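Request from the bench team (R.T.):
"We need a structural guess for the complex before ordering more magnesium ion. Sequence and SMILES attached. Just send the C-alpha cells back."

Command: build protein-magnesium ion structure.
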Amino acid sequence: MQKNDIGKDKYRAMIEALGEGVLLVTRKHRIALSNASAEDLLSWASPLIGKDIEKIFDDRSLSDAIDDVFKEKERRKLKITSYHSYTGDRAILRGKGREKHYKSYITNLDDKYVVMTITDVTRIERLAIVRQDFVSNVSHELKTPLTAISGFAETLLDDSLTREEIKGFARIIQKNSAHMQRIISDLLLLTSLDRSEIAPSMATTTDERILSEVRSYTQYKAETKNVTVEYESTGRDIVCNESLIVQAVINLVVNAISYSHENTKVTVRTRIRGSAMEFIVSDKGSGIAEENISRIFERFYRVDKARSRESGGTGLGLSIVRHIAIIHNGTIKVESKLGEGSVFTLSIPLS
Ligand SMILES: Nc1ncnc2c1ncn2[C@@H]1O[C@H](COP(=O)(O)OP(=O)(O)OP(=O)(O)O)[C@@H](O)[C@H]1O
Ligand SMILES: [Mg+2]
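Reply to R.T.: structure attached below.
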C-alpha cells in the first residue's frame, strides 16, 4: 500500500476508528485534537479540545514526560515504551471521584505536538488486586486451622498423655479440619457460581418446600442457641434452583441465629412483591453498624473477626447469598441497626 494513494481524510478516519484513545498535545500541554475513543475514555472531561492536560490527568509526572519527549527533538516518531520511568507505567487519573488507571504512550510528532495514546486498564488492574487479595485471604484463613491441626498432632506424639488428654486434642484436630473442609466447600461453591457459563438448572417449587428444607437444616443450631425461629410462607410456586435458594436462606437464617442473643426470636417469611418472591429473615440480634453494611457481602469480610471465627464463621456466607441472588437475576438487601437487629431480604423473580 503506497502512502500517496490515500488521502488525509482516510488517515483521520483510521484514527477515529481506533479503540485506543489518541490525543494531540501542544508544548503548553493543551489538547489540540482527540479521537472518539479518547472522548469516550475521558468522557467526564469532554469536550477535550483546548483543555489543559494537567487539569484532566491528576498526575504531575505526566507533564514532565511530555516535556521530556519534546526535549528529545526527534523528527522521527519516538515511542516511549519506557513511560514507566516517569510514572510507573501508567498515569492515575481521577474523574468523578473514581480512580482510573490508563496506560499511555507519548510520541514526538514535531516541534509543536506530541501524540499521546491512552488505554483504560482500570478493570485489569482491579481484577489483579481482587485476585491477589483473594489468594492471600484464602491462605490466611486456611493457615489458622492448619496451624492448630499440626500443632496438636505434634502434641499427640507425646507418650505421657492420658487417655482424656488424647481425646481432647483429637477433638480440636477434628474441629479444625471440619472448619477447613467448610472453607473449601464454600470456596468451591463460590467458584462454580462464578463460572456463569454453567447456568444452574431451574425448576418449579414452592416457598413452603424451601422453608421446610431450611428449617430441617437449621433446627439444631436454633435449639442449641435457644433461639426460636418462626416460619411463614405463601405456598406460591417459584421457578428457581431449589437447592441454591435453600442454601442462600440457610446462610441468612444461620447468621440470624448466630448473631442473636439467647431467648430471642428470628422470623423467616416470604411475600410476593410484583413479579418477585421475597425471603425475609429478621432478627433482634447485634445488628450491623452502617459503615460495615456495604462490606458484609465481600468474601471473607467479618465485622468481628475474633467472635465470628470462634463461632466457626469463614465470612463467605453472605457472598454466597449475593452470588445466588445474582445468578437468579435477584437481589439481596439489608436493613440493620446496631444493637437492635437486622432484616435481610432476598428477592427472587417468580419465573
Ligand atoms: N444477622 C446478622 N446480624 C449481625 N451481623 C451479621 C448478620 N449477618 C451477618 N452479619 C455480619 O456480617 C459478617 C459476614 O457474614 P457472613 O455470613 O458472610 O460470614 P460469617 O457468618 O462470619 O461466616 P460464614 O461464612 O460461616 O457464614 C458476619 O461476620 C457478621 O459480622
Ligand atoms: Mg454467616
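Two things stood out. The pocket of adenosine-5'-triphosphate (ligand 1) is lined by residues 251, 255-256, 259, 283, 285-288, 296, 301-304, 308, 313-319, 342 (CB under 6 Å). DSSP finds twelve helices and twelve strands in the chain.
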